[in-house]
C-alpha cells in the first residue's frame, strides 16, 4: 500500500465512509430533529416568548448525538466480519484518520450548526416571533462549538481504542481520569498546606497566588483549546496504526 498522502484517495475514502453510514446518519438526524421539533412546538404553544432559550437545548442534544456518532464511526474496524476489508483498503493510516475525522468533526459541526439555525427559525415561526438566529459573534455560541470540537476527540480516540460500547466506555474512562486528577489535586494541596482546614488569603504567599493564577487563567486554557485536541488525534493515529500492522 502506498503510504503517501493523496487527496484523490482521501476523497474516495470519505465518499465510501459516507455511503456506508448514510442510512444511520439520516435515521439519527430524522429522530433528533423530530424530537426537537416536538419540544419546540410545545414551547411555542405554551410560552412563545421563551423560544429563544431553546438554542442551548438544541446544542446539547446535537452535540451528545455527535459524541455517540463519533463513538460508532469505527464500528467496521471492530467487526470480525468487516475489519479485514477496512484494514486492507488501499488507503494509508493518515488518510483513514483524517477522512474519518473530517466526517465526525467539521462535516458534523456544519450539519449541527445548520440544524440549529433551521430549528430556531421554525420554532420562531411557530411561536409567531421574529427569528433571532444564533450569531457567530456570540461568545457563548462560538465557545460551545469550540468545546465540542476539542472534547469530541476523546470519543474519537475511544472509537478506535475500545471494542463495543465505545461511548459508554469513553465516558467511564473520562470519569476515572477526573477521579485521578481530582485525587492528585487534593493530595498536592494537602502536601502544600497540611491540615490547616479553611485557607484564607493570609495562608497563601503572593508568589504562589500569582503562579496559581497564571496556571489556571493562561496555561490550562491554552492546553485545552490548542494542545489537547491535536494530542488526542496523534494518539488516535498511533492506535489506528497498531491495528494496521
Descriptive account of the structure:
Helix content is 78%, strand content 0%. It is mainly alpha-helical. The chain has one domain. Helix 1 packs antiparallel against helix 2 (55-72), helix 2 runs parallel beside helix 6 (139-161) and helix 5 (93-127) crosses helix 6 (139-161). The radius of gyration is 22 Å and the shape is globular. The protein starts with 6 loop residues before the first helix and ends with a helix.
Q: What's this, in brief?
A:
The chain has 245 residues and is mostly helical. It is 78% helix and 0% strand. The chain is globular, with a radius of gyration of 22 Å.
How does the SSE layout of this entry go?
Layout: H1 7-46, H2 55-72, H3 75-78, H4 83-87, H5 93-127, H6 139-161, H7 166-193, H8 206-244
Helix pairs in contact: 1-2, 1-5, 2-5, 2-6, 5-6, 6-7, 6-8
Transmembrane segments: 20-45, 57-77, 98-120, 140-162, 171-194, 214-238
Keywords: Membrane, Transmembrane, Transmembrane helix
Choose one word for the global shape: globular
The number of domains is 1
Question: The biggest beta sheet, please?
Answer: none
Helix content: over 70%
Q: If helices are DSSP runs of H or I spanning 4 or more residues, what is the number of helices?
A: 8
Q: In terms of structural class, how would the helical and strand content be classed?
A: mainly alpha
Strand content is under 5%
Mean pLDDT: 86
Question: How do the helices and strands follow one another from N- to C-terminus?
Answer: HHHHHHHH
Oligomer: single chain
Query: What is the terminal-to-terminal distance?
Result: 12 Å
User: In terms of per-residue confidence, which ranges show pLDDT below 50 for 5 or more consecutive residues?
Assistant: none
The total strand number stands at 0
Keywords: Membrane, Transmembrane, Transmembrane helix
Transmembrane segments: 20-45, 57-77, 98-120, 140-162, 171-194, 214-238
